[in-house]
Every structure is written in structure tokens, then in C-alpha cells.
Amino acid sequence: MRKITLAIPRGARIGPEAKPIYGYDVVEAFEERGLAVHKSLPGKRWRWMVTHVQSGLCLERIGAMTKKTAMENMRRALELPIDWTMSEQETIKALREDRRIMDGINAIAIHD
Known about the structure:
The chain has 112 residues and is an alpha+beta fold. It is built from 3 helices and 7 strands.
């Protein structure tokens, strides 16, 4: 696990460069094999979030109130049949095509 700076897009991507309409929120995160845990941005349900590093896509379903639980959720997500180090397009394609991945995320998302 390593500490990184992560840029999370705010809003839809627009223009030829596909930059987010409202820019980026920059957070410090703890990354492992393509996923990262970081403090939530304002307006989110959880205090800690799990995010796909390549895309900045927050996996909000597996966020948590504590860093420890978010880390556990991230590690469980890393066991799913997907390579989280893939690009944004490849990852979204895999999430759409392989039902096991979303089923796994939904199973992780069952909070006490």
C-alpha cells in the first residue's frame, strides 16, 4: 500500500480533452492495485470512500464510516475477478459485462 495524491473529477467530462466540467477535487489516498481509500468529499454518505484510481470513479456502495472498514472493503473488492489497474474505459466495460463483479460489490456493500 502506498500513499498517493488522487484527482477525483467533479461533473461530466466535456470537450475534446474530456475534462470534468467543475474540475477536480484532489485528495490524499492509500492505494493498492488500482483502488484507493480516502476521506470522503463533502456531500457524500460515508466518511471514507473507495475509488478506482485510473478513472477517479468512487465506488460509493463500498464506502464506510471508518478508515478501517473502508480498507477492508477495498481489499475485498481487490479479490473480485477484475483487474482494477485497467483504464477507465476497460474497467467500465468489465463492470457492465461481468455480472460477478457487481454482485461482489453489492455483497461487500451490505453494511451492519
